[in-house]
């Protein structure tokens, strides 16, 4: 399949004019093996996440660290310019490379991402733009805390992210707290309207978490 178009099992709606950015540059220390290559029924987890994003976003990019471990998967690959600096560095690479004004960023270890959630978040940014009140980020909240690894970011934040990275390793929340950055915070109750169990926010960092995810998936049918 061509990346950026929906898979046969994806959403019937046309992809939105936005980029999907998968952060895959981590070292998977707690998992003990490469999280992006964990096996799913759709192939490696990274491919599963990419196919889900392709149901919603007109472009899908994978951010990896040099020299690039995932070229063999045939996904559009972007290399991190600040390897070892964490998710903010991956986001920066994606923002610089993406074609569209907004990108939905997702970690490669989020197997429960649903196309409906991806579409809901991207549409928040696009709707604000149409209203003439553009925002720089759309970020879900869970238990009152931001979930910046499943969020929409504007391409215009790339220089802001770069300035923060030039100061050293910084968390993603530093970008959201930067002066002048406009954020839509998505209440947990609103997100539950499209994802009642918040499965899209689940990430798997350890073998125990991966096993728990598989059990939950199997029990839900």
Automatic annotation (TrEMBL):
This is Probable molybdenum cofactor guanylyltransferase. The keyword S-adenosyl-L-methionine does not apply. Belongs to the MobA family. PANTHER family: MOLYBDENUM COFACTOR GUANYLYLTRANSFERASE. Coiled coil: none annotated. It is an enzyme of class 2 (transferase). Its EC number is 2.7.7.77. Residues 20-177 form the MobA-like NTP transferase domain. One of its GO terms (biological process) is Mo-molybdopterin cofactor biosynthetic process. It holds the Pfam family NTP_transf_3. It comes from the Bacteria. GO terms for cellular component: cytoplasm. Mg(2+) binds at residue 109. Keywords: Cytoplasm, GTP-binding, Magnesium, Metal-binding, Molybdenum cofactor biosynthesis, Nucleotide-binding, Transferase. It is found in: Cytoplasm. One of its GO terms (molecular function) is metal ion binding. Its cofactor is Mg(2+). The keyword Transferase applies. Transfers a GMP moiety from GTP to Mo-molybdopterin (Mo-MPT) cofactor (Moco or molybdenum cofactor) to form Mo-molybdopterin guanine dinucleotide (Mo-MGD) cofactor. Transmembrane segments: none annotated. It catalyses: Mo-molybdopterin + GTP + H(+) = Mo-molybdopterin guanine dinucleotide + diphosphate. SUPFAM superfamilies: Nucleotide-diphospho-sugar transferases. Its main location: cytoplasm. GTP binds at residues 23-25, 35, 80, 109.
């Amino acid at each position: 399949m061509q990346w950026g178009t929906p898979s046969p099992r994806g959403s019937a709606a046309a992809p939105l004019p936005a980029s999907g950015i998968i952060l895959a540059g981590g070292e998977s220390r707690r998992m003990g093996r490469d999280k992006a290559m964990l096996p799913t029924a759709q192939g490696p987890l990274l491919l599963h996440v990419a196919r889900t994003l392709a149901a919603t976003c007109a472009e899908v990019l994978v951010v990896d660290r040099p020299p690039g471990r995932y070229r063999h998967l045939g996904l559009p690959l972007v290399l991190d310019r600040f390897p070892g600096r964490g998710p903010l560095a991956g986001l920066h690479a994606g923002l610089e490379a993406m074609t569209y004004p907004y990108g939905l960023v997702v970690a490669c270890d989020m197997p429960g991402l649903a196309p409906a959630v991806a579409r809901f978040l991207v549409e928040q940014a696009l709707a604000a733009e149409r209203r003439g009140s553009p925002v720089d980020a759309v970020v879900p909240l869970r238990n009152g805390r931001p979930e910046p690894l499943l969020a929409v970011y504007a391409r215009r934040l790339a220089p802001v992210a770069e300035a923060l990275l030039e100061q050293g390793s910084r968390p993603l929340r530093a970008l959201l707290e930067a002066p002048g950055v406009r954020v839509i915070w998505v209440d947990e109750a609103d997100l539950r309207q499209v994802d009642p169990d918040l499965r899209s926010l689940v990430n798997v960092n350890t073998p125990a978490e991966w096993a728990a995810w598989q059990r939950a998936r199997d029990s839900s049918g």
